[in-house]
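agent: user wants the full assembly modeled, not chains individually. Plan: 1) parse entity lines 2) check alphabet per entity 3) run joint structure prediction 4) return tokens. Steps 1-2 passed, two entities, 497 residues total. Proceeding.
--- entities ---
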Amino acid sequence: MPDWRNIECDNDVALSGPPSPKLVSRARILPLDTIHTQTRFQAITPGNKRFEIDDCVRRLLVYMQDPRSVTDLLATAERNRWQDGGAMINLAFIERKLIKTGLVEYYGSRNDVDSGTMPGPAASGSGYAFLWLRRDLLGHKTLQPATKALAVLLSPVGILLGMSFSIVTHTIFLAHLWRGAMPAMPSAQGWWMMVGLLYASVFWHELGHASACERFGAEHGPIGVGVYFTYPVLYCNVTEAWKLPRMQRVVVDSAGVYFHFLFASVFCIVALRLPSPVFPWLIASIWFTILFNLNPFLKFDGYWILTDLLGLSSLHRISAAVLRRVVLLDRDPRSSRELRELPRMIRFTVLSYSVLYAGVMAYFTERIVRALIPSCVRSLTHDLPAMLARIEAKQIGVILLAQAFQVVLILLCTYGGVRFLLAGITAIIRGFRRT
Amino acid sequence: MNKNDNFLVPAENDMLIVELDDRLEFTAVIADPAPIQSAGNGCNNTGCPGAGTQCTNGTCLV
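--- prediction returned ---
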């Protein structure tokens, strides 16, 4: 029998008997399209936190739509042989995995009384890891008129026309470059114009993700800015896309690249008509940005495209479990369960990815320590005095602004790098402690 | 049954509940997209803007 005295129940409401856990009133349970051999679902709290669950947890949560006594729950779990890590589920499981996550509450508690009227706080889950100095710029309501209009570009006809337009304009532009029309370097003023257009193109890229969500009927979140790892980034929150079939999720992931190519196409035409060196450099920068963002090791477009093509819910989580098992000799069956339930080919792909991921993270760490931090120090000791000398000489203009812009960028990158190193060290210490 | 035994014989009724990542589609802005030519008649040894640019043959290059 559970010890009722140890149950912490946040209520002023008098309970006639022992507290009864119950699924919170506005929680939702939806299917989750993955490639795992066992069906997966997603449970969503009223505060929009999402959990991947299997059929056992789904059945348990459905059973808890009505208040159930703990005794009843444990007896039902025993009858159904519901287990956690090989042992029968117990009160600790209910408290740690269901109540703390916000999916379940004690019936009659203060939370339950309020849950019908108070919206939950905005979710800020693990997708925000390694994102620093985050700031949402434009919310859903502001963006929706634009994304609704742009969703037409993601209809089958829109995609066909858009891709044809991109291919034709890029081919003509490349032929123009092939004939030897190498662009000169832009002036400082031109450089500023190019940077402005490049940032605008990235914003347009994010609109692509949001528009794809709109197209498939999933509500998109805000577009914002921040520093992710060591990179200044724009981001679009498309968490609602989890409810879509995975090939539609792939379209949401790829829509940014598609929009980026459309943006470049317009400037291919401009570059052919105007002799300025700004536009060829802008197009080259966009190509480089697209290529860089197809990298699957950080959560850029390439990561989500690969994750959804493979039919996983988190390539990083599964890779971390693989690395914990290999490096830290973690034998917890829960860590390897996800890998075990994958088809053989996908499993080998994930194992190869995990090895490469570890290598990339090691390389990334080495670059931060040996290149980024020294570069930041050099910038502060060389560029800063040069900037001060310009200010003293009253040479205040676009060159000085470009210099200041780049110093700020390298400071932001280094800040992200140092935070990443500290977070990495903490995670490794935690991993050792867990095992 | 210890943990290692459990690993070898997966429990069919084991409960799985893990947090799903928020889907944030990040796009990095590549900072130094192109070399800059300084305004006027090129540059001298101290006249280049920004981190990573150097004065080469009178022109600032990344």
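agent: reporting back. Strands of chain A lie at 21-23, 28-32, 40-44, 50-54, 83-84, 87-88, 104-106, 131-138, 223-228, 231-237. The longest strand of chain A covers residues 131-138.
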